[in-house]
Amino acid sequence: MASPTYYECKACGFYTKGNFSNIAYNLNDEGERIFVPHARNGPFDGYMHQTVCLDCLHQFKLDHKVDDLKCISCSSANIVRTHLTEGKPCPKCREGIIVMEKEEGFSI
Ligand SMILES: [Zn+2]
Ligand SMILES: [Zn+2]
Asked: Looking at the predicted structure, is the pLDDT value of residue 1 above 60?
């Protein structure tokens, strides 16, 4: 099993939760999304991705195929999947560079 990852700015300590794969979910009868932990075999109704807002730094899960591509907190469209922040300037302090870290037992 792959190690959980997170993405951290060494300059200010800001970090985002990573995910080592898509987060699969199925819809129940009420249309609610039920996450499928450690999903291996599909098909599933959809996949969520750990996402961060580069404007307000809010972190949330989003299905980038069917959900509105905007922050659920501030409605900014300036959002990105957390793994795409790797190697980019920190959205918080704008001085550090985001690097990927692995941590055993780090839960998402
Ligand atoms: Zn936001
Ligand atoms: Zn920073």
From this structure: no
Name the band, by pLDDT with cuts 50, 70 and 90, for residue 99.
very high
36-73 burial, b for 16+ CB within 10 Å, e for fewer? beeeeeeebbbbbbbbbbbeeeebebbbeeeeeeebee
For 65-91, write each residue's pLDDT tens digit.
999 999 999 999 999 999 999 999 999
Note the ligand closest to the C-alpha atom of 62. Answer: 1
Relative to the alpha carbon of 80, which ligand is closest?
1
Name the residue ranges covered by the structural domains of the chain.
5-102
CA of 9 to the centre of ligand 2 (A): 5
Distance from the CA of 40 to the center of ligand 1, in angstroms? 31
